Automatic annotation (TrEMBL):
SUPFAM superfamilies in UniProt: Glyceraldehyde-3-phosphate dehydrogenase-like, C-terminal domain, NAD(P)-binding Rossmann-fold domains
Positions contributing to (S)-2,3,4,5-tetrahydrodipicolinate binding: H128, G137, T138
Protein name (Swiss-Prot/TrEMBL): 4-hydroxy-tetrahydrodipicolinate reductase
Residues holding NAD(+): G7, A8, K9, G10, K11, M12, E30, G71, T72, T73, S95, F96, N97, F98
Length: 219
């Protein structure tokens, strides 16, 4: 697979390059602030950078007719409209979290959160102290799956890759669901899985649950 990375010099850019390369994929495009290295035509572009790069990334996808895997957080409604429009031309997989466990977390909430109607609910998310957005995009995704207004507490401490806990409680009991990422490699692996998915499906706008349910094996 020929691929490109937007945000190539960042921490996730390095993780993506290492993971993809370990599978024999060919890195043909690297883009970052004041940096552009083109060595071929990518089939898929992966972007885990920042919202300010979305327009550039979309233009690159159009230029190369490349599919897009985007894990950038803090996207606005305008960004989503741009990405959905791109999905009319190529396959786009968007998620705030490319962890398989978080996707399963979402599905569990979608299927069973109605059973906790009448219970208190609270989400606590913890990330490293360099993460700029709060609450995390993942916490917002989980809140959406609960289907009602839920408070979110955000902690930015140390080097935590990502931890999300959702509490349901009534007068007599507390029910807790928790997911912890112990390495950025989990996100890189999910991104590669999404990239392979893009090569097998029709153009459109997809999420990571679509990838898991599409039967694509681990990246």
């Amino acid at each position: 697979m020929r691929y490109g990375i937007v945000g190539a010099k960042g921490k996730m850019g390095r993780e993506l390059r290492e993971l993809f390369s370990s599978h024999g994929d060919e890195l043909v495009l690297e883009v970052d602030v004041d940096y552009f290295d083109e060595r071929g035509t990518p089939e898929v572009i992966v972007d885990f950078s920042s919202p300010s790069a979305v327009s550039t990334t979309v233009e690159l996808c159009k230029r190369y007719s490349a599919h897009l895997v985007i894990g950038t957080t803090a996207l606005t409604q305008e960004h989503f409209e741009i990405l959905r429009e791109l999905g009319k031309q190529v396959a786009v997989v968007q998620s705030f979290n490319f962890s398989e466990g978080i996707a399963i977390f979402q599905k569990l909430l979608r299927e069973f959160s109605h059973l906790f109607a009448g219970w208190d609910c609270w989400i606590v998310e913890t990330h490293h102290n360099q993460k700029k957005d709060a609450p995390s995009g993942t916490a917002i995704m989980l809140k959406h799956e609960v289907g009602r207004e839920v408070p979110i507490s955000s902690l930015r401490i140390g080097g935590v890759f990502g931890e999300h806990v959702i509490y349901f409680a009534n007068t007599y009991e507390v029910f807790e669901l928790k997911h912890s990422a112990i390495s950025r490699k989990v996100f890189a692996s999910g991104a590669r899985r999404a990239a392979l998915f893009c090569l097998k499906v029709k153009k459109g706008f997809y999420n990571f649950l679509d990838v898991l349910e599409g039967g694509i094996e681990h990246g």
